[in-house]
Write a structure and sequence with these properties.
The chain has helices at about 45, 65-75, 115-125, 140-155, 175-180, and strands at about 5-10, 15, 30, 35, 50-55, 80-85, 95, 100-105, 105, 130-135, 155-160, 185. Helix content is about 25%, strand content about 20%. It is built from five helices and twelve strands.
């Protein structure tokens, strides 16, 4: 399996995972992430770069709802993913939204290693095209580093959802690391109201 896999760094160079030598997959081969190399044009034109995306906003703005929508949309396109959460409002291993949507998820704890989990899935012959990570503010910075490695070295999309700051307007450690490492950060457009009637900020 490692000999079949290649990665792309940010300079648009395809390199072998363990030798760091430039490689070019054969025409018609499929690299991690499900991208097929077509013809002799090479990877430069055909290999899609995966993204680490951070969707953030205050409480009650619809982050978990969007997480479930992203998982549904990706799955509808024939992609296979994994859902993760930590300290969900339901108290169980699931992603739940305030409007009643829910889906089973893997509970994140300190011992979970995202890199090891995904590599184990892939080497076991199980397809992984994307990860949806809800309540990401409760993860550890090490978890975020692992997710970034999954994106950069395995070319698997990761969608994280979480609160940026606490009530003191201080960054959650994992949220701070996501801001540093994510390829794109998006602020949710739904703006809940504070008890005072003003738009909520955290």
């Amino acid at each position: 399996w490692p000999g079949q896999m290649c990665i792309r760094d940010r300079s648009w160079t395809c390199r072998c995972w363990w030798t760091d030598r430039p490689v070019r997959p054969a025409s018609g081969s499929v690299v991690s992430g499900g991208t097929r190399v077509a013809g002799s044009g090479g990877v430069r034109e055909t290999l899609r770069v995966a993204d680490l995306t951070y969707f953030t906003g205050p409480m009650d703005c619809g982050k978990s709802t969007l997480a479930l929508q992203v998982a549904y949309t990706e799955s509808s396109a024939g992609r296979q993913g994994r859902l993760f959460t930590m300290l969900d409002r339901s108290g169980g291993s699931s992603i739940t939204s305030r409007i009643g949507l829910t889906a089973p998820a893997i509970e994140v704890n300190e011992s979970l290693d995202f890199w090891r989990y995904v590599v184990t899935e892939l080497t076991g012959g199980r397809r992984v095209d994307f990860l949806v990570c809800d309540e990401a503010q409760f993860y550890s910075p090490a978890h975020i580093d692992q997710l970034a490695r999954v994106v950069d070295e395995l070319q698997i999309d990761v969608f994280c959802f979480g609160i940026l700051t606490d009530f003191r307007t201080e960054l959650f450690p994992a949220s701070g690391r996501l801001v540093e490492l994510c390829d794109r950060m998006e602020q949710l457009q739904v703006r809940p109201r504070c008890w005072c009637g003003e738009p909520a900020t955290h």
